[in-house]
Design a protein that fits this description.
The protein has a six-stranded antiparallel sheet with strand order 2-3-4-5-7-8, covered by helices on one side. A hairpin with a 2-residue loop joins β11 and β12. The chain has twelve helices and twelve strands. The chain is elongated. It has two domains: 355 residues, Outer membrane efflux proteins (OEP), CATH 1.20.1600.10; 141 residues.
Length: 614
């Protein structure tokens, strides 16, 4: 039941309000408490601090997250490593040149007993000989992706033979010497006709390596998207924490003013002393809320520092952070079906799943080919030339003879291998069949999950927008309700408890409005993340560079290329933006990273883009 209190005339009440000192002191009159000390939650006015706050825009937050986040740095090495694996997978098809030079000497002596007529005495004769030879060879081999290999071989030989012969008329030995030259060439070709026939059977590892490169790049893009989304959400969370702190301080100020008004009324005897107790309890309750809100601000600042990976020696560690961009309220109409279709073509995880299916299907083609018989063609043709006759001299004569049919060799053959059972190839083919089916179902599962995730994100955007509208109406009505209750209190028709309760309702409504606006902006960022379009929304692109073989593709990511127009360093005197200005910042990201002990340090600026332009 509301207690009615007799009140004096309005003129008397005004005079007593303006001149509280004329009120006679009594046992119910209380001294006005001293103002709260510096830093107390009851001190609502902003006091200048020794260190000014660090003003941070949303774009600068995203830039700092890209520059400092170690997840991005670590993940950026994966595409570069995968690019080298693509190069390594092409190594079996590299041509090869061979060459050799050999010098040899073979000396031997044999003995023979010869009888001399007519007495026929046996005489032992020694026949020494030496064979000195120089051999030079060169060859070229080129494996082909169609399953063939051709070889070109050339050789040159010169030999000197020194020996001895027996002269029966003189019954003695005499030395002999002969020298010869030989040159030859041969072209051979081997081609698989069943097993290992065709580029799909021989180059499947290259295709798989390129798909793995695409997966690494997609994973890097996912890391960038997740980091940007986390940074933006942390930025909006800090915004809410500061707005909520402002709301709590405003509520504390209202309660403090109300308590002072009650003190005056108690002094003049128009209000019961219990009303001061209720007002003081309301002030204490709001002081506690301010303390909690101040702690929430510090927690939100630390979360933002963490996602930006702020160095420990940075002044931001000791400075408070003030966002310069308030959360906007831009109503966006989203079509769930269109958003789902966009997600199917843009999400990195679906791109990775499609590349995995492609790799498994490529391996399946190879495994199917391995079940065939081995049928190979082998053939060669060659010419040889010799010198050492009376009409020829040295190597020129041997080479001239290559143009004639003095010595021609050729061969053609087919070889067949029929595996009995071939269980290893059959088992491998069946295993990959299962893996292909598994990869396809996994892609279907991820596609369905992406659709559901996008629908949920769209629903969250719509829900938060409705929350904002409802919260705005609630705040307006709570203000009107509080104003009416204060008038009733002035007329003695209400109590301090009711007024303080309505002040609490207004503060809660304002907090819910701020939370709804922040949640709406966070849900928009989450929607772009689950669609895979956050980079495009933030005016950022992944670099596209020529890949192996010259084909255009997304190459090794260079952090400096993520922002369009990133040509000048802010620290180096580049164009600065005012806080909160829209559009990408003119910044230069670290181009590469080098290992320095256990630390990762930025590489030289001259290395920008070197990884992608090979």
């Amino acid at each position: 039941m509301t207690r009615r209190v007799a009140r004096p005339s309005s003129a008397l009440l005004m005079i007593l309000t303006l001149l509280p000192s004329v009120a006679a002191p009594g046992p119910l009159a209380q001294e006005k408490p001293a103002p709260p000390p510096e830093g107390s939650p009851g001190r609502t006015a902003e006091q200048p601090s020794a260190t000014p706050p660090y003003v941070l825009s949303l774009q600068d937050t995203l830039k700092a997250a890209l520059e400092g986040n170690l997840d991005i740095v670590v993940r950026s090495f994966d595409p570069r490593r995968s690019e080298e694996l693509v190069t390594a997978s092409q190594a079996p098809f590299d041509p090869q040149m061979t060459g050799s030079a050999t010098s040899s000497l073979d000396e031997e002596t044999f003995h023979r007993a010869i009888d001399k007529p007519p007495t026929n005495p046996l005489t032992d004769f020694a026949f020494p000989s030496s064979n000195k030879q120089h051999t030079y060879t060169a060859g070229f081999q080129d494996p082909l992706k169609i399953g063939g290999t051709y070889n070109i071989d050339i050789s040159a030989i010169d030999a000197i033979f020194a020996g001895s012969q027996f002269d029966f008329p003189t019954f003695s030995t005499f030395p002999t010497l002969s020298q010869g030259y030989q040159a030859s060439w041969k072209v051979s070709y081997t081609q698989s006709l069943l097993r290992n026939l065709g580029p799909k059977a021989n180059g499947w590892l290259i295709l798989v390596a390129k798909n793995n490169l695409g997966i690494s790049e997609s994973q890097f893009r996912q890391t960038v998207i997740d980091t940007l989304a986390s940074a933006e959400k942390a930025y909006w969370d800090l915004n809410f924490a500061l707005m909520d702190l402002k709301t709590k301080r405003s509520s504390l100020q209202l309660a403090t003013d109300f308590m002072e008004q009650n003190r005056i009324k108690v002094r003049v005897g128009t209000l019961a002393p219990i009303e001061i107790t209720q007002a003081e309890a309301g002030v204490a309750d709001r002081e506690e809320a301010v303390i909690i809100a101040e702690s929430a601000v510090k927690t939100a600042e630390d979360a933002l520092r963490q996602v930006m990976n702020v160095p420990r020696d940075s002044p931001i560690w000791s400075q408070s952070i003030t966002p310069s961009d308030p959360p906007p309220l831009n109503e966006v109409v989203v079509n769930a079906e269109e958003a789902g279709a966009t997600a199917e073509t843009s999400r990195p995880d679906l791109e990775q799943a499609r590349l995995n299916v492609s790799s498994k299907e490529t391996e399946l083609v190879y495994r199917r080919n391995q079940r065939r018989w081995a049928l190979d063609f082998n053939g060669f043709i060659g010419h040889g030339g010799v010198s050492g006759l009376l009409s020829d001299t040295g190597y020129p004569g041997a080479i001239n003879n290559l143009r004639s049919d003095f010595q021609t060799d050729w061969s053609a053959s087919l070889s067949l291998g029929v595996p009995i059972g071939n269980r290893q190839a059959v088992a491998a083919f069946t295993r990959v069949e299962y893996e292909v089916s598994q990869a396809r179902y996994d892609l279907e599962r991820l596609t369905l999950a992406a659709r559901i995730e996008v629908r949920s994100a769209v629903r969250q955007v719509e829900t938060n927008l409705k929350r904002v509208r409802a919260a705005q109406v609630n705040v307006r009505l709570q203000r009107e309700k509080l104003s009416a209750e204060q008038k009733k209190f002035e007329n003695g028709m209400s109590t301090s408890f009711q007024v303080l309760s309505f002040q609490n309702d207004l503060a809660s409504a304002e907090s819910r409005e701020n939370q709804a606006i922040v949640d709406y902006n966070k849900s928009l960022a989450e929607l772009e993340r689950v669609k895979g379009t956050l980079l495009r929304t933030k005016n950022m692109v992944m670099p596209s560079t020529p890949g192996p073989g010259g084909a255009g593709r997304t190459g090794s990511p260079s952090l400096s290329a993520l922002w369009k127009g990133a040509t000048e360093s802010v620290e180096g005197g580049g164009a600065r933006r005012s806080a909160g200005e829209s559009g990408p910042a003119n910044v230069r990201m670290p181009a590469s990273f080098a290992f320095d002990g256990k630390r990762i340090v930025p590489g030289r600026e001259s290395d920008t883009g070197s990884a992608g332009g090979r």
